[in-house]
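U., I forgot to send this yesterday:
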Amino acid sequence: MSTRLSLSVALLLLFVASSAVLAKDESSTWEGLELKPTQGLDLVYVRPEATLKGYTQVALDERIEVAFDKNWDPNADVRGTSGRPSADDIQQIKNEMASEFRKVFAEELTKGGYAVVGKLGEHTLRVSAGLAEVHINAPDRMQAGRSTTYTMESGRMTLAMELRDDPTGQLLARIVDEKTGSNTGQLQVTNSVTNSADFRRAVRSWAQRLVKALDQVNRKA
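Result:
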């Protein structure tokens, strides 16, 4: 099941990455799911009459897909060669983003009272997630001697997430939402530390939205 869901999310990421105008020209349906306008999220599609009621634990997929924006140039915001990321650096960024995503997401679910499990269960909601159109300004390797880069914001990324009933595998909902890093309107130093802070803040907000949705139907809020 894990391989099948990973493939599903990979296809979802491909769809998101190739549909930059989706949020401006959204369809009312998506493979049997219906668009449900939701404040604070770009696109939420749900199965008619589906509910999150009764789910007390969450199975978060081990594999978190990460796909950079096809137009992202990791060297565009770097001054000098010392901070220029290599192919290995870029892959490391992907690995760290995936690992941190899962860590922060699990922390928020646990804090909200929902156990994060790794096996099938009758009251288990399966979450498959990925990040598309990732654009990181001023990525660096925190090496001595690298030049400082000044940018307006730390980047952007789009969440692509599927919610499924774990025992049956039935697709319940899909969420697509873009988050942009902090933008004060003024030039500021941007590096791997500030990038990471913005990244964790975005992931935490998505996890908290899921916890809130579960709480609402399970009468915890």
